[in-house]
């Protein structure tokens, strides 16, 4: 007899977990550079589309078969009898799709850590291996009635089964790949490579946060009794509490360490709290969930810094710190904070020891299998694109997509290319001299209106001062100007800032460039008026540049020189 409440609950949860693919896609795209956005979209689309049929072909049988405690069994297309593992009142295919979307989540975690330099063909292959073999085998141990489940290992919704497995694969993959070009200088000091859109990253996190209520809450797989509703309510509350506490913890840590609260690291903090509480959200009380959030906040900040600065593994989105480190930490903390059997609640050391064993054994299995996968790929088809393709961007080199943002400039000041790499790429080009390849023709025309001197005044200033500057120019009779939003820095190299714990070496600050051509108004008046409103006495007040202008042509009337600058109709 099926339960409509349980079935509806599981199907809604499955839809929410599926939508996490959108969250991961937007988050990863936002924390990477614009020239790789199309590639990121394809990876997050294809890992689910590849993983789903493979999980149907073999993965589900390996995970939920009953052959033995270490391997579920070979059952092509899940044709066997799985009635013994089905939740009460839930049809087979409702449970099947619920487990399928979990498998897709584990595979997509890897994408972010290996972003911006992985061959798309290699990505498709190792994503397939994760969904076909790696995740189902360890999943059998934990959720499919395997040996860890028999020992009493507790991982309610997948801190270890999903997140740690994905996080370990991400770490091993990023280590095999090596860092992005320009990530480390010749002394091994990390450089900050800024993501192109923090708004997208934030939206991705909010989507993931929303979907996590299905990820954790749906894992109760029941909603037809008072006990089930009470359990789901506790899971919802603990999930949210851990996320917010972890975020505030990261906020405080980064505010103290970097002198400013780090936006992208706080986003990682939210995910850290969600990942950490996933293992024990059903067995800890709110105090335990808050403690898990605090600890995971510390783990994610110092973990990401350690991986980036000490281990020197380039992880653009912090996937290793969030999923691997916080996934394992949350699972271990379940052994301490579980109200029934936890070490801190009088349960003794046994349960905590089982949690340690489960984390260790799953880690060993994942490390061995994914390392073998990456080793074979690296020695055969290769894992990484060429230096030239990486500089050009994955969108154009891997997918023939000129830009995922057609009509918008996608270059970035963080698209740093080391001199030696640039020289190596240039050396592979043709041998035609530059003066022949790009001819320059200089034509000299007789000056027009030479009796009237025209001068261009270019003013670089803070954005906040523009309205005052415009009013001052209008007051002295300046009626025309060209205004451009620009990025720049002076001799001071901008202010020292941090991005994800790494000092930004060349901080390009937002400025306004105002261009004015004058002939009637004295240049000195323009300079004095500009200085009066822009001056504060602090670094960054701006600069004024003066140029001689040979001629000006008004397109509408054909007037030139002095006449072209007048507003007479």
Describe this structure in words.
This protein is of the alpha+beta class. It is 55% helix and 7% strand. The strands form 2 sheets. It has a 4-stranded antiparallel beta sheet, covered by helices on one side. Strands 3-4 form a two-stranded antiparallel ribbon. Strand 3 (497-499) and strand 4 (502-504) form a beta hairpin. The protein starts with a helix and ends in a 20-residue tail after the last strand. Mean pLDDT is 90; it is low at 440-450.
Structure, briefly:
The protein has helices at 4-31, 37-64, 92-113, 120-142, 147-151, 159-177, 198-217, 226-258, 263-277, 286-310, 319-337, 350-379, 387-392, 394-399, 419-427, 434-437, 466-475, 523-534, and strands at 454-461, 482-488, 497-499, 502-504, 509-518, 543-549. The chain is α+β, with helices and mostly antiparallel strands and 569 residues long. The strands form 2 sheets. A 4-stranded antiparallel β-sheet has the order 2-5-1-6, with helices on one face.
Terminal CA distance: 86 Å
Name of the CATH class of the largest domain: Mainly Alpha
Which ranges are low-confidence, i.e. pLDDT below 50, for 5 or more consecutive residues? 440-450
Number of helices: 18
- The radius of gyration over CA amounts to 30 Å
Helix content: 55-70%
Largest sheet: 4 strands, antiparallel
CATH homolog superfamily of the largest domain = Ammonium transporter AmtB like domains
Tell me which oligomeric state these chains represent. single chain
Strand order of the largest sheet: 2-5-1-6
The count of strands amounts to 6
Strand residues, percent: 5-15%
User: Which structural class do the helices and strands define?
Assistant: alpha+beta
Order of helices and strands: HHHHHHHHHHHHHHHHEHEEEEHE
Overall residue-averaged pLDDT value = 90
CATH architecture of the largest domain: Orthogonal Bundle
CATH fold group of the largest domain: Ammonium transporter fold
- Give the count of structural domains: 2
Using the alpha-carbon principal axes, give the shape: elongated
């Amino acid at each position: 007899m099926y339960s409509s409440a349980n079935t509806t609950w599981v199907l809604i949860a499955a839809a929410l977990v599926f939508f996490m693919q959108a969250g991961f896609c937007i988050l990863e795209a936002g924390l990477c550079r614009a020239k790789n956005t199309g590639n990121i979209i394809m990876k997050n689309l294809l890992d689910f589309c590849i993983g789903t049929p493979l999980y149907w072909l073999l993965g589900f049988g390996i995970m939920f078969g009953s052959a033995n405690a270490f391997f579920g069994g070979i059952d092509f297309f899940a044709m066997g009898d799985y009635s013994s593992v089905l939740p009460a009142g839930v049809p087979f295919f409702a449970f099947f799709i619920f487990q399928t979307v979990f498998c897709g989540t584990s595979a997509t975690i890897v994408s972010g850590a290996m972003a911006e330099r992985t061959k798309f063909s290699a990505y498709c292959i190792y994503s397939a291996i994760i969904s076909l073999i790696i995740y189902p085998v360890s999943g059998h141990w934990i959720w499919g009635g395997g040996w860890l489940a028999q020992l009493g290992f507790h991982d309610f919704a997948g801190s270890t089964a999903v997140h740690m497995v994905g996080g370990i694969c991400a770490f091993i993959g990023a280590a095999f790949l090596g860092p992005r070009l320009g990530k480390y200088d010749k002394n091994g000091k990390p450089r900050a490579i800024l993501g192109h859109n923090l708004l997208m990253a934030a939206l991705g996190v909010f989507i993931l946060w929303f979907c996590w209520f299905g990820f954790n809450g749906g894992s109760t797989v029941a909603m037809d009794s008072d006990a089930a509703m009470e359990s789901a309510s506790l899971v919802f509350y603990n999930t949210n509490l851990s996320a917010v506490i972890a975020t505030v913890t990261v906020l405080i840590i980064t505010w103290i360490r970097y002198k400013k609260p780090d936006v992208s690291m706080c986003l990682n903090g939210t995910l850290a709290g969600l990942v950490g509480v996933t293992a024990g959200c059903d067995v800890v009380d709110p105090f335990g969930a808050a403690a898990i959030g605090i600890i995971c906040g510390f783990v994610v900040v110092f973990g990401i810094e350690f991986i980036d600065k000490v281990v020197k593994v380039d992880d653009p989105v912090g996937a290793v710190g969030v999923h691997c480190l916080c996934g394992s930490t949350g699972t271990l903390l379940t052994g301490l904070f579980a109200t029934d059997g936890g070490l801190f609640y009088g349960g003794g050391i046994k349960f905590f020891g089982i949690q340690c064993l489960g984390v260790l054994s799953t880690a060993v299995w994942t490390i061995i299998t994914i390392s073998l996968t990456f080793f074979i790929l690296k020695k055969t088809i290769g894992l990484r694109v060429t230096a030239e393709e990486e500089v050009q961007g994955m969108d154009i080199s891997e997918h023939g997509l000129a830009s995922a943002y057609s009509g918008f400039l996608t270059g970035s000041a963080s698209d740093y290319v080391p001199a030696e790499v640039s020289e190596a790429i240039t050396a592979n080009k043709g041998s035609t001299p530059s003066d022949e390849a790009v001819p320059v023709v200089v034509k000299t025309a007789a000056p027009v209106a030479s009796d009237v001197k025209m001068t261009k005044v270019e003013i670089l200033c803070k954005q906040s001062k523009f309205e005052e500057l415009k009013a001052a120019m209008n007051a002295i009779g300046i009626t025309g100007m060209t205004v451009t939003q620009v990025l720049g820095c002076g001799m001071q190299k901008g202010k020292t800032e941090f991005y994800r714990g790494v000092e930004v070496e060349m901080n390009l600050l937002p400025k306004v460039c105002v261009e004015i051509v004058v002939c009637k108004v004295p240049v000195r008046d323009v300079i004095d008026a500009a200085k009066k409103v822009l001056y504060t006495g602090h670094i960054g007040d701006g600069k004024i540049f003066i140029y001689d202008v040979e001629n000006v042509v008004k397109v509408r009337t054909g007037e030139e020189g002095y006449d072209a600058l007048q507003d007479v109709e």
